[in-house]
Design goal:
- The structure is a single chain.
- With 138 residues, the protein is mainly alpha-helical.
- The chain has a domain of 69 residues.
- 57% of the residues lie in helices and 7% in strands.
- It has five helices and two strands, in the order ααβααβα.
- Strands 1-2 form a two-stranded parallel ribbon.
Length: 138
């Protein structure tokens, strides 16, 4: 959590270098992991898209100083690095990226049954996946 912990006591230039390294690592590992999932599922299944919850902010600023201007953004920034990396990796691998606002996933699946998985967060993820597939196939 470089924004929220490791970079807090660093001078801004050192913090920016650290976060750039972390972003690069996240990007490389995310692409590698997503490519691995696609490969593991093939040929039985074709991965066509990524359904992911919308980020709480429209963008992640390039500098630590800009992130630190908002405590809410500082708290969200670490997670946003992963969310952005997953979206970028999916697009680079030719997948459709479907971004959903929290609680809109279920509404976008129309009247589809929402059996297992059982928790509310699992049902939302399941619904987001169904909505993404509906957009892809029709």
């Amino acid at each position: 959590m470089p924004y929220h912990h490791e970079s807090l006591g660093m001078p801004e230039d050192e913090a920016n270098v650290l976060i750039a390294r972390v972003r690069q690592s996240i990007g490389e590992h995310t692409t590698q992991a997503l490519r691995g999932v696609i490969g593991d599922l093939a040929p039985a299944y074709a991965v066509v898209g990524l359904a992911i919850r919308e980020s709480p902010f429209p963008e992640l600023p390039d500098t630590v100083a800009l992130v630190r201007q908002s405590y809410r953004l500082q708290c969200a920034a670490d997670g946003m690095m992963y969310q952005l990396a997953f979206c970028r990796a999916a697009r680079d691998l030719g997948l459709h990226v479907h971004v959903f606002r929290r609680s809109e996933e279920i509404a976008q699946t129309a009247a589809r049954p929402s059996g297992p998985p059982w928790t509310r967060e699992h049902r939302r993820a399941f619904a987001a996946g169904l909505a993404a597939l509906q957009r892809h196939h029709g």
